[in-house]
Amino acid sequence: CATDEDRGRIHSDMETAIEESDPPIVTKRPTLRAKYSAIIWSYCQVFLQENHPEPEQDKIIERFKYALLCPPHGRMSFLLTFFVLSSTTGIGLYSLLSHYPGLLHKTMSLYSILVFPLVGGYLAKYARMPGLLGMLLVGIIMRNIPYFDIYSHVDMAWQARLRWVCVVVMLSRSGVTLSKFSMENLWMLIFRLGTVPCIVEGSLIGLIVRGILGIPWMWCFILGFSLSGNAPNIIFPCLKKMNANGFGLIKGISIIDIAASHIDNLVSYTLFGVLLGLSIPREGILGYKLSNVIISSFAGIFYGLPLGLFIRYFPEKASPSAGILRLAIVLTLNTTAVVGSINLGIPAAGAVASVALTYIACHKWRREENYDDMVTRGLDHLWYILEPCLFGLIGIQIPISYLDGGVVGYAILIIILGVIVKMGTSYLVMMGTVLNHNEKVFIAITSLPKATIQAALGAMPLDILIKKKFEGEVVEVAETLLIFAVLSILITAPLGAVLINVFGPRLLPKETMVLGNLTNAVTIVEHQIEMIDRKCYEQEVDLNDEK
User: Fold this and answer.
1) Which of 72-81, 285-294, 311-320, 433-442 comes out lowest in average pLDDT?
2) For residue 498, is pLDDT > 80?
3) DSSP string covering 11-65
4) Three-class SS of residue 276?
5) Alpha-helix runs per DSSP H in 214-290
6) CA-CA distance, 28 to 14, in Å (whole number)?
7) Beta-carbon contacts of residue 30 (< 8 Å; ≥ 6 apart)
8) Backbone torsions φ then ψ of 285, nearest 5 degrees
9) Which residues, including other chains, have CB under 8 Å from residue 509's CB and lie 6 or more apart?
10) What are the phi and psi torsion angles at 528 (to 5°)?
11) DSSP letters for 135-181
């Protein structure tokens, strides 16, 4: 028989076992809410992206259905994000400025010039056309829609200053792009390709315009050099796509094209600025001051060279915010150069100063270890916002009712003749180089598209004349220049993009091994050299052991 002590021990062991055991499972009947939630969830699973395989590229309807699945992804996610951001920004601006009607109308007009051209650019890219073409067309449509009066609310002073900011970012990006390339072996070819065709085309257009339209001599060449620049923003995406497919990698076709196009834009802007500074009426008389040419040529160098050498050491590379500070320094100094030169009547000096300053500073920064290319990325982000403004602003200045059929016809003829002459000149300046016939033809084709420099310079004379309150023949000539600039974009931008994409794979050789970028190529070569050195070292060790 168990004693009392044994009974107590057994009782305590049973209590411990009961405490350590799992609680009894109590089955509960599902509530009505849980039941309906399960039913709804079973229906919603049909619309989830994870439950559907990604369709093939050629099935457009299936891909459209796949794009509508949840959660938002791809283009649909971008569109929804853009819609939410633009709507909330517009509501915020309205709530801030609702008590100031005049300022509200001006601000919302500029905001609409940003948003709607951005949508037009996205739709143009989706249709495989240059995005800037859609931005320009949306600007023209906004000006010519009845009962949709935005242009009258856009302040001309704000419009001009916003265009100047676009020019600052454009020139800064040119300096940054040129600093990326090592052009020791190609600099003579790039220099010839970036200067001679631009000068020949601008001079020829000036002579033809003088003979056909009879406008003053100086304004003829201003018009010519405003049209002579090409469009790196169209050339670069096409070249990037072809390089990814292995076309034109060995001889550096992309480097030659991109560097020459930026130099071409600099030459076009500089000559345009020199002639514009000489042609703007002063006190009712056209003041031709030859000293402005010398000032424009050297003032930019005297500003950009020493400041570029100075800011390349600031801030120190160990600073955690070095990238954003360098971007701020470059933008402020370039803004001072561009806007100050325009106010002083020597616009060419600002272009030379901006490109020289940015090139010298970025060339030093790129040689640092662990370099964070914040300047390039920051300028690209700014250009993403300012590009729709630039093309929307020039498009909104073109009323269809003011277009003269005769002027438009002559403009189309002159633009086509200028493009043909520039392509021929580009081919001739490459004679005697390492490039073969097909590569020369392709580079000549890349000189066809026009866009950015025309949008930046097309309306600048009209802005300056309106600011100085001039009227009469000079203003009409400036309006004609604006029409030429818009037509050159509408004609050459889509045509150039199509010709580059069509003839690039046919004219350029395709490499057997496609490398993503030059860094990968250098890494592979260095690895091969290291392996060869290691094998040689092992062979020497074996020989020494045998001896």
Assistant:
1) 285-294
2) yes
3) HHHHHHHHHHSPPPP---PPPHHHHHHHHHHHHHGGGBGGGSPPPPTT-HHHHHH
4) helix
5) 217-227, 232-244, 253-279
6) 28
7) 38
8) -125, 140
9) 247, 248, 250
10) -65, -40
11) HHHHHHHHHHSTT---GGGS-HHHHHHHHHHHHHHHHHHHHHHHHH-
363 in Cβ contact with 179 (< 8 Å) = yes
Tokens of 262: 């930026």
- Written as one string, the DSSP assignment of 412-470 is HHHHHHHHHHHHHHHHHHTTTSS--HHHHHHHHHHT----HHHHHHTTHHHHHHHHTT-
Tens-digit pLDDT profile for residues 124-147: 988 888 888 999 999 999 888 877
Q: What is the rounded distance in angstroms from the CA atom of residue 358 to the CA atom of residue 175?
A: 5
pLDDT score recorded for residue 517: 44
Average pLDDT, stretch 100-110?
A: 88
Return the H-helix or E-strand segment holding 285.
strand 285-286
Tokens standing for residue 521: 């190529």
CA distance 273 to 120: 31
Task: Let me know: does 209 contact 227? Beta carbons within 8 Å.
Answer: no
**pLDDT tens-place string over residues 5-23:** 666 666 666 666 555 555 5
Residues 6+ apart with CB under 8 A from 236: 258
Among candidates 296, 301, 362, which has minimal Cα distance to 331? 362
Instruction: List, for residues 187-230, the tens digit of each pLDDT value.
Output: 888 899 999 999 999 999 999 999 998 888 889 999 999 999 99
Those residues whose C-beta lies under 8 Å from the C-beta of residue 500, and which sit 6 or more positions away, are 234, 235, 238, 239, 442, 445, 446, 449
Question: Rounded to an integer, what distance in angstroms lies between the CA atom of residue 532 and that of residue 527?
Answer: 9
pLDDT given at position 287: 45
Distance of CA 332 to the CA centre of its chain: 20
Angle CA 257–135–391, to nearest 5: 70
| DSSP letter (8 states) at residue 93 | H
